[in-house]
Amino acid sequence: VQLQASGGGLVQAGGSLRLSCGASGRASDTYATGWFRQAPGREREFVTAISWLGRMPVYADSVKGRFTISRDNAKNTVYLQMNNLKPEDTAVYYCAARRSPPAQWTSGGVDYWGKGTLVTVSS
User: Fold this and answer.
1) pLDDT of 44-59, one tens digit each?
2) Of 46, 57, 61, 64, which is the most exposed, with the fewest CB atoms less than 10 Å away?
3) CA gap 120, 27 in Å, rounded
4) Is the pLDDT of residue 27 over 80?
């Protein structure tokens, strides 16, 4: 499975961005897909994940109510709509795929990683 993330950029606090993660490869549409992020000087952390059917989304507490994950299997693409962005959301965002249900994503490894896309939120 190959993953390609896009959509990062510079935005002011309170603004919005939408990230996209395109997937390709054998059975890529049967994996749960999600996002992690890594801020400068910090460890990579879980953000959100969604099942391959587009159900059971799980969110980190820090983004609940502001971020929404969705997927379009016809396009093999997962989206992350980020609203009301805060400076602490600044990070490199990585798309990931894993066979496990989203509820298990807060621990354990990831099967596939995509290259990151940088999101910078200015105050």
Assistant:
1) 999 999 999 988 899 9
2) 61
3) 33
4) no
CA atoms of 99 and 62, how far apart (whole Å): 24
The 3-state secondary structure of 7-23, one letter per residue: CCEEEECCCCEEEEEEE
Tokens read off for 120: 């910078």
Q: Residue 119 and residue 37: Cα distance in Å, rounded?
A: 9
69, 99 contact by CB (below 8 A): no
Q: Which letter, b or e, does each residue of 75-91 get, where b requires 16 or more Cβ atoms within 10 Å of its Cβ?
A: ebbbbbebeebeeebbb
Residue 107 pLDDT grade (very low, low, confident, very high; cuts 50, 70, 90): confident
Closest Cα partner for 93 from 109, 106, 107, 79? 79
- Measure the CA–CA gap between 55 and 58, rounded to whole angstroms: 9
Say how far apart CA 76 and CA 63 lie, in whole Å. 24
